[in-house]
Structure formats: structure tokens, C-alpha cells
């Protein structure tokens, strides 16, 4: 049975390594017959959460920017995929800002059950990705019906497009095909 997959690329850099990893995952998921929505945060207006908690009363954020349609795509997806570059051993600021802005989702009914995490970094080693994964699992803890189903981490890539030809692209495509 085909699933609705929402892939969110949080890098805003042209030819981003994490976005290329996300595109590989999306290709695999699409080739397996799933419906894929690919969202990039490039050129998106995503403002910081003000902490006003109005969303707890109204179910929506008072800030008028590009977050509402992204949140809607996440709410109605079966699978959510986050892709980020790692900066200073943590997820990108854009990813964290978007996660914070998804606070109105907390009390809502949501469809997604499976979450995947893709990340790239200049540094190598599995420990490079630990804090970013912990940050994402903090968000997942607020949605108890979800599970972190898989991840692909690629270290040792710095400049835009350096991931080209890397085996991690095939790994991400294969993971996407298993959705």
C-alpha cells in the first residue's frame, strides 16, 4: 500500500549535501510507489516562535509565514523525513526553528507513524550525529505513536555537492525504497 511521504530538507545552501541525501531518499520512496512531497526550506519565511502559547488555545500559530502549509503536510503524511546539515554537532537552526514552530501540532491528531533522519557533516564519526538525533527524538517524544524508523549519516562532506558519488546516497535511496 502506497504511503504519503513528506521529506523536509532544512539546508538553505545551494547544492547542499543533506538535500542531495534527502533527494536520494525521496527517489527511493517514489520508485517504491509512494507519494512523495519534497519540501525545501530554501526561500521559505520561517520566523522564530514567540513563546506566546496562543496555539494552545487556538490550535494554530499567530505568526503568518510559510510554516502552516509545511505543518499541514507533516500532519497528513504517513512518513516524515528530516534532512539537515550538522553545525557544531547539532541540527541546523532552520530545522530547530521549524520544530519549535510546530508546537500547535502537539495536541492534534496526526497521521505520521514513521520518521526518518538524514544528516551530513564535515566531521566524521557516529558521535558527530548523536546530539542532533537526540534533538529530533525530543520532538518525537511529543508524538507517542511515532518511531524513529531509520537514519543515514554521512560525515566527511563539507563543500556543496561533495556527497556526489558517495555510497551514502545509495543507502538513503535504499532506505526510502523500504518505506
**From the helix content, strand content and strand pairing, which structural class follows?**
alpha/beta
Q: What is the CATH homology-level superfamily?
A: Flavodoxin domain
Biggest sheet descriptor: 5 strands, parallel
Count of alpha and pi helical runs: 6
Q: Under the CATH scheme, which architecture would be assigned?
A: 3-Layer(aba) Sandwich
Percentage of helical residues?
25-40%
- Measured distance between first and last alpha carbons: 10 Å
- CA radius of gyration: 16 Å
The CATH class name reads Alpha Beta
Beta fraction: 15-25%
State the low-pLDDT regions, or none: none
Order of helices and strands: EHEHHEHEHEH
Silhouette: globular
Count the domains: 1
Query: What is the arithmetic mean of pLDDT?
Result: 96
CATH T-level topology: Rossmann fold
Protein name: Flavodoxin family protein
Domain NADPH-dependent FMN reductase-like: 4-123
Pfam families: FMN_red
GO molecular function, one term: oxidoreductase activity
Tell me about this structure:
It is a single chain. The chain has a 5-stranded parallel sheet, sandwiched between helices. It is α/β, with parallel strands linked by helices and about 180 residues long. It contains 6 helices and 5 strands; from the N terminus they run βαβααβαβαβα. The longest helix is centred in the N-terminal third of the chain and has 15 residues, at about 15-30. It has a single domain (about 5-175), classed as Rossmann fold (3-Layer(aba) Sandwich), CATH 3.40.50.360. α1 (about 15-30) runs parallel beside α6. The chain is globular.
Amino acid at each position: 500500500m502506497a504511503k504519503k511521504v513528506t521529506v523536509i530538507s532544512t539546508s538553505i545552501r545551494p547544492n547542499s549535501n543533506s538535500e542531495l541525501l534527502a533527494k536520494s531518499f525521496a527517489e527511493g520512496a517514489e520508485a517504491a510507489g509512494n507519494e512523495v512531497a519534497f519540501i525545501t526550506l530554501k526561500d521559505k519565511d520561517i520566523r522564530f516562535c514567540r513563546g506566546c502559547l496562543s496555539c494552545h488555545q487556538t490550535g494554530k500559530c499567530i505568526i503568518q509565514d510559510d510554516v502552516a502549509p509545511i505543518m499541514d503536510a507533516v500532519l497528513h503524511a504517513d512518513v516524515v523525513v528530516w534532512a539537515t546539515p550538522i553545525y557544531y554537532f547539532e541540527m541546523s537552526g532552520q530545522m530547530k526553528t521549524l520544530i519549535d514552530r510546530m508546537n500547535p501540532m502537539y495536541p492534534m491528531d496526526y497521521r505520521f507513524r514513521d520518521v526518518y533522519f538524514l544528516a551530513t557533516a564535515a566531521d566524521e564519526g557516529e558521535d558527530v550525529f548523536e546530539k542532533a538525533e537526540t534533538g529530533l527524538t525530543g520532538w518525537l517524544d511529543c508524538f507517542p505513536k511515532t518511531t524513529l524508523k531509520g537514519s543515514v549519516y554521512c560525515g566527511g562532506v563539507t563543500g556543496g555537492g561533495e556527497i556526489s558519488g558517495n555510497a551514502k546516497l545509495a543507502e538513503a535511496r535504499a532506505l526510502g525504497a523500504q518505506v
